[in-house]
Amino acid sequence: MSETTTAKTADPHSPGTPQSHEHPVDFNSYVRRCAIVFAVVLCAVGLMIWASFLHLEWSAKIAIILLIASCNAFVVAGFLMHLLSERKMVYTILGFTVSFVIGLFGLTLWAMTDFPLHTVTH
Amino acid sequence: MEIPYTVEARPDTGLYNAKVGIWLFLSSEVMLFGGLFSAYILLRVGAVPGTWPHGWQNLTLGTINTVVLALSAITTLMAWVACKVREFGKFKFFHACTLLLAVTFLCIKCEEYREHLNHYEIYMKDGTYADGDMVQNDAAQDYIVIDGRYTKNEMDLYDLRSQKVVEKELKIPRSQIQDMQSYGPWHNDYLALYFTLTGLHALHILCGSVVIGYLWGPGRKLWKTDPERFTNRVEVSGLFWHFVDLVWIFLFPVLYLT
Question: Up-side HSE of residue A110: CA atoms within 13 Å toward CB?
Fold first, then answer.
């Protein structure tokens, strides 16, 4: 590690530095990480726009675009929100959330063709 | 009485309390936006084929806003990192950048709303449609002026990406107008969803900006007395900001691209 980097690194166990329950923070490595994440986000946005102009079935097009958006979201959540190295408690909360969201979307889709009697459709 | 676990981690959760709190709050936010997204799916799939709008949004402004928000997520993270390494000057710089980007995002969003609210669909008495941006709508005059086009088929107004639209200035006598309506949330399901989703998102941006502004302004006094707690506040506000960015990552393709 370079001298400059060492000077800008906070050791969570040394007195007088902000205490962290995770890893020591290195300013320069975060700058690099952020630059990469930003580049990935820009690429993902460009890809989504490109995919939106493809001559495909609209359902296939939506699937491709949402797949790229999900990858983009994974990068943001994983690296910027530190979800790749979080505590079990956070994963537990997110696990519940995901199961509820799946239920919400699933019930919506399940009820899609479940019209009340005498409903007028086009 | 001192609030416990504002800095050190609780033994049972492994996190300080505010972090558990923000994740629980974000979970409820996921359900809030999830409900609106499922409303979108329901209306989109249930729409009569050919009547769901395409190309109604300003893709350039939407893309700029996406980049602006992604950049603000980066500056938020860097503000927290600056606190971690005790570089308060850098923290102030990065948080000021975040605020500036947030204001930019909101200004662009306002411009998009203005464009929609100034755009009109006019149903003529002869059964044709005129569609375009309002240029002149003076009640004292017996005509209106729009920058748009005429069409006989209403379906032409839905999918703008599959056709080349040539707009010109049209002077329309009021006596020929049956009905006219701007492209506000009342216009159709798509615009109702667009304004609801982006309006709620913009409200989140506004609230996040207030919190970030507080930490950048009056709230920074805490840095002198308890820097670790201040750093945790910055982290928690940053997590909220990243969530807002995540929501936009899905809003942009759903509303602008599909």
Answer: 6
- In this prediction, does ipTM exceed 0.95? no
CATH number at residue B172: 2.30.30
**Under DSSP, is residue B25 helix (H, G, I), strand (E, B) or coil?**
helix
Quick: pLDDT tens for B185-199.
Answer: 999 999 999 999 999
Chain A segment 37-66 residues within 8 A of B by beta carbon are 37-38, 41-42, 45, 48-49, 51-52, 58, 61-62, 65-66
- Which chain A residues are closer than 8 Å to B45 by Cβ? 112
Residue B9: strand, helix, or coil: coil
Total of domains in chain B: 2
Name the residue range of residue B246's domain: 38-43+51-116+187-256
Please tell me what DSSP assigns to residue B140: T
The answer to whether residue A37 is domain-embedded is yes
Position A39 in a domain: yes
Domain boundary among B148, B182, B216: B182
Whether residue A19 is contained in a domain is answered as no
For A66-108, how does the pLDDT look when each residue is reduced to its tens digit (9 = 90+)? 999 999 999 999 999 999 988 899 999 999 999 999 999 998 8
CA B168, B169, B175, B178 torsion-angle sign: positive
Q: Number of structural domains, chain A?
A: 2
Q: B residues 6-45 near A, CB within 8 Å? A: 7-9, 13-16, 19-20, 23-24, 27, 30-31, 34-35, 37-38, 41-42, 45
Asked whether residue B4 is assigned to any structural domain, the reply reads no
Per-residue pLDDT tens for A10-45?
Answer: 444 343 444 444 557 788 899 999 999 999 999 999
Task: Output DSSP code: residue A12.
Answer: T
Candidate from A9, A18, A72 with C-beta closest to B83? A18
Distance set, CA A7 to CA A2, A25, B115 (Å):
9, 11, 51
Q: Which of B130, B152, B182 is the last residue of a domain?
A: B182
**How many angstroms separate the CA atoms of A8 and B85, rounded?**
6
Question: Which tens digits make up the pLDDT trace of B121-171?
Answer: 999 999 999 999 999 999 899 999 999 999 998 888 998 887 888 889 999
Task: Let me know whether B167 and B251 are in one domain.
Answer: no
Interface test with A, best of B84, B159, B250 (most A CBs within 10 A): B84
